[in-house]
Amino acid sequence: MANSTEKQLMLKQMQLGSLFETISAINANQSEEDLYTIYKLTLTSNPSITNLVLFVFNEDKDELVREVNHGNHDHDLTERFPKAFEEYKKLSKIKNHPSGFEQFESIMPIKHKNEILAYALVGFAEEKHLSDLRDTGFAEALSNIILVAIENKKLARKEEKQKETKKQLEIASHVQEMLFPKKLPYGDNVPVSVHASYMPHHSIGGDYYDFIQMSDDKFLMSIADVSGKGVPAAILMSNFQGTIRALARRGMDLESIVHEANTQILESAQGENFITAFFLEYSKKNQTIKFINAGHNPPFLVVNGEFSRLETGTTILGSFTKLPFLEVGEINNLRKFFVFGFTDGFTETYNDEDEELGDDKLEEFLLANLNCNQKEMHKNLIALLNTFKGHQAYADDITLLSCKVDLDK
């Protein structure tokens, strides 16, 4: 029978061989599942280890997952462990264990750069002849080697995912840039002047605006806000824009355009996204505006200094197969007017006192600045918003769209 020294020498030789095989497996880029198997087989090949459990934090670092289990039959251990570990840290390490954890002699946090990656729980046999084979140091060293290798795999996976996300965002950002009109009619001495300001909350926003010259007589302007963000929202808005432009340039009436847009959104989004939108068509010949508000913040209309809101229309687009109560608003005898549209990111901005900017403050500003040119008006509005919000961040995308019509120019 081997003496104590011979046992320990044999153990060290076995451990060195195991470490070499483990490092070879890591260098060969074996899967996480394979590395956990190697970990379990390496430690449990030591007859003194009777219980082994490895809890590993998931990639979001918000949940412990039991990846290795040997000799333990306590299925509720995972739920009880975090509290038990806090208790264990306060106890003497000699013969003191949290209630229900008596089968484990060591509870080892596995760290990398001061971040806890996992917890290894090890229990040893009580037989005296196996006491020479106990080695918590090797268990801890192997745990560190395996867990750091697995963490590197997770980080590489996360980096690849971030690269793919960045690539998708770049594509979506490019798509979104193409959505907005390249040039808007603007000037102090033109019959129709349009100006827009757009401030995305993230690199990819969900707001949209457009100005379409349907003919020498008519134009269509629109502002919209799609639910959701990122690539899906950008693609949906791209399809939406294509539909509106194609139908408008074919001379389709406003009601038909909105019905077709609703159908297109339903087919594209399958009920997962919707769009709030506002459409306004103006005929210089008839001096008439027709408009439909599809669940959007009602724009302001100013005629001879009098304010009104353009609310007539229907509900949001993309939620109903057939739009309910669709009504086209119409106002005649308009040679001179001003329309100001916006998305809810502007009026729903909060300040440090948790007060909302709201529509009333916007109307008050517009009333006081009607004589400003549109670029100056937009600039001052954004300055007002920045002052109002204080230290608060923008909660959503912000779009401002204004149109001045004066047929006498």
TrEMBL record:
- Species of the source: Flammeovirga pectinis
GO MF entries: phosphatase activity
Gene3D superfamilies listed in its UniProt record: PPM-type phosphatase domain
Which positions, given as ranges, span the membrane?
none
Annotated ranges, domain PPM-type phosphatase: 189-405
What start-end ranges are recorded for coiled-coil regions in this protein?
Answer: none
State the name under which the record lists this protein.
PPM-type phosphatase domain-containing protein
**Pfam families to which the protein is assigned, alphabetical:** SpoIIE
Keyword Hydrolase assigned to the entry: answer is yes
Instruction: List UniProt keywords, sorted A-Z.
Output: Hydrolase
Q: Which domain of life is it from?
A: Bacteria
**Keyword Hydrolase (UniProt):** yes
